[in-house]
Amino acid sequence: MAIGPDAGATHQGRGAGRKLRWFAAILAGVVLLFALAAHLLLEPQRASRFLLDRIGASLGLEVRADGRAEYRLRGTPMLVLRDVSVREPGAARELLHADRILLSVPWSTIRAAGDVLDAQRLELDTPRVDLPALQHWLASRPPSGTQRMPAFADGVRIRDGVLAGDDWRIDGIALELPRLAAGEALHARLRARYLAPPLQAPVDLAIAVVDPGALLRDARTGFAASGRIGVRSDDGWALPGWLVLSGPLRIGAGGLRLQPANVGIAAQWESDGTRVPFALGAHGPLRFDQAVWLLADAGVVLRGRDAVANDAANDLVPPLRARGQLALGRRLVLRLGGDIARWPRAWPALPKPLDAANAAMPFALDYTGTPDFGDAATLALRRGDASLDARVRLADLQAWLAAGDAQDPLPPLDARVRAPVLEFDGVRLEGVEATLSSPGADDAAH
Asked: Which of 15, 86, 219, 229 could connect to 96 by a Cys-Cys bridge, CB 3.0–4.6 Å?
């Protein structure tokens, strides 16, 4: 049978048609396969598990999200995770738990597969960080110089966070960070409350960091914070005030360090209706590590700041300059030595010749005890050849001063007084050496 040109063309057309149908079928299958794979992978729960497994593997952590997950691919991709738990493999304590985490990242970051850390927005609701567990994990990580800082074009928000130590915590953490980028100054607003019974200290601070990326390199960078602070005790006293803090900041193996730190505090002591305003300045190396704040070898200046400068009744703050150290953790350690420029007019008058108004009085103060000054402190005063060495509790002394005319003639302290000459109401005593023992100070001093 002869085959003409038209018949051959028809045969070729039928072969091409079969090939097209096979190609279409294969293409349809591939599309269906990709659609199925995308559905399985991008279904929120599967997508979140896939992502968290990758994150956990890269960080050496177990990361889970047991709550409902959401995602969005249009525009800027976004993933929302709920009931998120992070811990080291096999660890009993969670390193982090959060009710909700929102992460938004541009497609360019996703396509870079980890080579770029640019993100759009990060939100954390009710995150709780266990500091000992976090420190244990950080100790296993590579040196900080190998880490990179992520960028967040639309910033970071933390709401109702908690940072927990072994016997202290910072709760109510609210952080607003409008933007975070390497090489750009960081500006943030922080609200929180430090709790270490019997003390609590709420803060509301504006914070600035010149180069936040330097903190990942264990390098120094400029830091400043200012805002309201307060210290309150379960015993009823309060210390509201305003804090200004600045200095070169460094975060590394030695904890958080400001070296040197410039500290300025304008505050007011409040207790049982008594209000004593004062201003305090300090300059020296400041460190926070293992839940302890340490200000070492610091210069300190203290003065009263009463609105009525000549109000002798409210002149309760001794103007002084000193040097020493302060450590605040589960216990308070305070060691200062310096000069009191003037004896406060509201304090009991000194006998002659110790009452010289313009003569500086060297002093040394040493306290180790509860952070609310509930234990006894030792105080040494010198003026010329006269000296006073005493042990006293702040609460007892404050109550004695507040009693006014009804007060016991002797202050509540245990003390030894030495002076070549003293004059009381026209009576002159020479070669004085006396011991004072107040019943109110017995329990504190012995």
From this structure: 86
